[in-house]
Amino acid sequence: MDYKLWIDGKWEDTQGGKMMEIENSATGEKIARVVDASREDIDRAVQAAKRAFYDGRWSKKTPGERSKIMWKLADLIEANAEAIAKLESENTGKPYAFVSLGGDIPFAVDNLRFFASAARDTHGSHAGEFMTGYTSMYRREPVGVVGQIAPWNYPFMMAVWKIGPALAAGCTIVLKPAPGTPLTTLMLADLIKESGIPDGVINIITGGNDAGQAIVEYPDVRMVSLTGSTATGKKIMKTAADTLKRVHLELGGKAPFIVFDDASPELVAAKASLAAVMNTGQDCTAATRLYVEKSKVKVMQEAVVDAMKAVKVGLPFEDGVQMGPLISGIQRERVAGFVDRAKAQGAKILTGGGVPKGFDKGYYYEPTVISGVQQDWEIVQQEVFGPVVTVQEFTDEMDAISKGNDVLYGLAASVFTNDIGRAMRISSALEFGTVWINDHLPLTSETPHGGFKQSGFGKDLSAEAIGDYQITKHVMIAQG
Ligand code: NAD
User: Which of 205, 265, 273, 479 could form a disulfide with 307 if both were Cys (CB 3.0 to 4.6 A apart)?
Assistant: First the structure.
């Protein structure tokens, strides 16, 4: 099937763009073609969003009116959840059960409903007299046209996480899904129309990195929100400097998973294996670095290896499948490269480290546990973005904190202990945007998600995210 671009509430042909093939990651089959948008296409999309912003068809609606329409969109997504989940699995190879049921699509619906409600919570700074004879008031206004650029790991959920707070704030949007995974985001277009969101408020442009770059360069785009790699975040920040636009960056991660000697090996094995292989490890919060207190390394390591060996790898629509393929051949080469280089440095592969037997189609890679690594090795320092964990030991709290923090990233971390005082000390000392105690992965729409350090800045999820899409105006009234 060939897809067009969604501009100003209509399916539009490209003007000068090429077509790109979209494949199924579980089989490698070509399943669709989408447009690799040209600068001309980006221009039409931004201009549509600009018209929609300045005539106030969305920004001047009351919060209550915006909220009602957003609720309608959430209801429509829910009503179409099965079809969206099926297409998402066909494109990415994700286990269908993890996308439907309690997975990505229900979370996206919940997220949009949260932002539909939060749109109406307009509390803020007070008006008052701060100079004799003058009254000052604060207005929280939408930033304007925002460019939103999404990654391939949770295509539909990331698209919804992005549009929710921007819509709640009253912005208009040019949304670009990742080049290989645009299909469910394009499915959103007709639902947007049906929900009553006015034409031009959300425009969906498919394309590669050049299309993303064109959005960032465009002067009329007032803010760019990226979920993607740290390298892309740095490029976008440099490009955005030329037009001094606001950037909102949700970037890579390298989460530590810190285990003290009082933690239960069963709990640690269950949580570590799930958090390492969820979405085939292509998760910015994935557990990637296990640090275990010295006295318990052997027992914890054995439990984790057994749990990783037991993970059921398979096709997306098979029963009981816990892990699908990596997203592409390039990604599998990347992951295998990290593991092979660690091996060459002297690391020990305790399980995995290759393509699972019987999976000659698609881009599968085994759940992998690696020991015998040093803190400064690439495998410990860099984001692998595959189902791979390293295991190291630590001696005491200070050593655990120091090793946990010793990466460029700062997105998520976890601590396993039954000592509440220790859990509090460590959660305060870890420089990460989310710290879990005795768990790893769960997020909620109400609570903020975002990075420290080179994992970026700005929050997704929570009412804080709406603030990122607003700008404060001071209005000062001379009483005389
Ligand atoms: P990526 O950085 O390669 O691409 C992300 C998006 O940016 C794509 O749409 C791409 O086309 C676009 N892009 C690339 N270069 C660009 C440029 N110069 N200008 C404008 N746009 C450009 O990331 P990916 O490989 O799709 O996704 C994986 C990365 O995303 C991982 O690093 C992961 O940790 C991160 N991620 C972070 C979060 C979070 O919440 N912090 C969530 C999911 C994924």
Answer: 273
Which helix H or strand E contains 381, and what residues bound it? helix 378-381
Six-digit token string for 135? 């009254």
**Mean pLDDT within 407-420:** 98
For residues 474 and 128, is the Cβ–Cβ distance under 8 A?
no
Ligand 1 pocket test target in 22, 42, 149 with most atoms within 8 Å of CB: 149
- 10 Å Cβ neighbour count for 19? 14
Q: Read off the tokens for 384.
A: 């692998």
What pLDDT score was predicted for residue 393?
98
* Residue 393 designated active-site: no
What is the token pair recorded at 125?
């700074």
Spell out the alpha helix ranges (H) of 354-452: 378-381, 397-405, 420-429
Q: What is the dihedral of CA 55, 60, 66, 67, to 10 degrees?
A: 170
SS3 372: coil
Mean pLDDT of 301-313: 98
Q: Stretch 28-54: mean pLDDT, rounded? A: 98
pTM of the shown model = 0.97
Instruction: Give the DSSP letter string of 82-134.
Output: HHHHHHHHHHH---HHHHSTTSHHHHHHHHHHHHHHHTT----PPPEEEETTE
Task: Kindly tell me if the per-residue pLDDT of 122 is higher than 90.
Answer: no
Which token pair is 314? 């398979």
Q: Kindly compute the dihedral angle of the four CA atoms of residues 334, 335, 338, 343, in this order, to the nearest 10 degrees.
A: -130
Q: Work out which ligand 1 atom sits closest to the CA atom of 224.
A: 20
Atom of ligand 1 nearest to the CA of 249: 41
pLDDT band (50, 70, 90) for residue 123: confident
Q: CB under 6 Å to ligand 1: residues?
A: 149-153, 176, 178-179, 208-209, 212-213, 216, 226-229, 232, 235-236, 250-253, 284, 383, 385, 411, 451, 455, 460
pLDDT higher than threshold 90 for residue 425:
yes
Query: Is it the case that residue 16 has pLDDT exceeding 90?
Result: yes
DSSP-derived secondary structure letter, 303: H
CB half-sphere exposure, 160, CA atoms < 13 A: 30
Q: Which domains can be identified in the chain, with CATH numbers?
A: 5-251+455-478 (3.40.605.10), 255-445 (3.40.309.10)
